[in-house]
Amino acid sequence: MRAVLVGAGAVGLRAARQLLSLTTVEELGVVDIDDVARDAGVASLGGPARAQIGEILELGDGDVLLLAAPCAQRQLAEQALDDGAHVVSTSDATDDVKALLDHDAEARERRRHVVVAAAFSPGFACVLAAHAVTRFDHVDEIHVAKVGTGGPACAHQRHRALGDAGADWYDGAWLRRRGSSGRALCWFPDPVRGVDCYRGSLPEPLLLEAAFPGVRRVTARVGANRRDRLTARLPMLRRPHPEGGLGALRVEVRGRRGSAHDEYVLGAVDRPAVAAGTVAALAAAWIGDGRLARHGAGGLAELVEPTPFLAALAERGVKAAVFEGSSREAPGGRLVEVPTGR
């Protein structure tokens, strides 16, 4: 495999290291607007890594472009497809997700992959939802909540998402929701536990509705405190942590099994930058191995078989757990590792 990484930040460098350990990479180009960060990243990666200088990416047929920076995603994806390359993006910005999904027809025609939002959430959360869906005869609702950020770029995007309106999927229509509205106390695995979560410009409903077109309702929320909400429409007042902190996911699926209504709740606790880098690298490795479900643009809920993907993540330390006996009102039950047949 040959690959080009755009973004030598907290997520990008972790994705590159994971990719180098997952598969044989003949050459890994590294691009970043910060020359110092780029050169330091190349030095830390060693081996096949080298700096790419200039505005035109050096991509060839069958290469993988890994987008892990707040950059012009649409234009770079178009260039990659024109060069015959695949694309893996870690961006969770709704505009980026929509722009990349617009390349579905072109990517299908060219028999190339555009993996959208391959990060902590979406990404890991979408795979958890896909795994949960297999337990039901019919799925009615999917609800995602997330806490934490993977680095400065991720923190800035979370800040913007809280200040912008988003949309929930409800009975066949998109309902516009004001940013920082809809407070819900969501329970995550220890040590995070209960966190107030709010609506925002979050792409999870867009990706999950596309993956499960019969679902009645899809929502997403992100953890925030009072200061986050009050300043969401202003510039960030504090410099983000360079590595982010501890993060968590909660994915709740409700539906029918036989004649009974049931729910299945999955959770995960990890450093978002670590989990996002692992998810992105595994998606890129699966492209090289020909393991994605179809060509075209889409989220991981559509593109991977969830149980083997979760098993591969668990082998690299990114694990999910089931809330057994839990309910939406309380932490409930106990946590057990998601069974993946390993």
Can you offer a commentary on this structure?
With 342 residues, this protein is α/β, with parallel strands linked by helices. The chain has two domains: 2-119 and 276-307, Rossmann fold (3-Layer(aba) Sandwich), CATH 3.40.50.720; 124-273 and 318-322, 2-Layer Sandwich (Dihydrodipicolinate Reductase, domain 2), CATH 3.30.360. The protein is 34% helix and 27% strand. The chain is built from twelve helices and 17 strands. Strands 7, 8, 9, 10, 11, 12, 13, 14, 16 and 17 form a ten-stranded mixed sheet that branches. It has a seven-stranded parallel sheet with strand order 3-2-1-4-5-6-15, sandwiched between helices. The model has no long low-confidence stretch (mean pLDDT 92).
Key phrases:
342 residues, alpha/beta, Rossmann fold, Dihydrodipicolinate Reductase, domain 2, 2 domains, ten-stranded mixed sheet, seven-stranded parallel sheet, 12 helices
Helices, strands, pairings?
Elements: E1 2-6, H1 10-22, E2 27-31, H2 35-45, E3 49-51, E4 64-67, H3 73-82, E5 86-89, H4 94-101, H5 104-110, E6 113-115, H6 124-133, E7 138-147, H7 152-163, E8 166-170, E9 173-177, E10 184-187, E11 194-198, H8 204-211, E12 217-223, H9 226-230, E13 247-257, E14 260-270, H10 272-289, E15 296-298, H11 300-303, H12 306-315, E16 321-324, E17 334-337
Parallel strand pairs: 1-2, 1-4, 2-3, 4-5, 5-6, 6-15, 7-12
Antiparallel strand pairs: 7-13, 8-9, 8-12, 10-11, 11-12, 13-14, 14-16, 16-17
Helix pairs in contact: 1-10, 6-8, 6-12
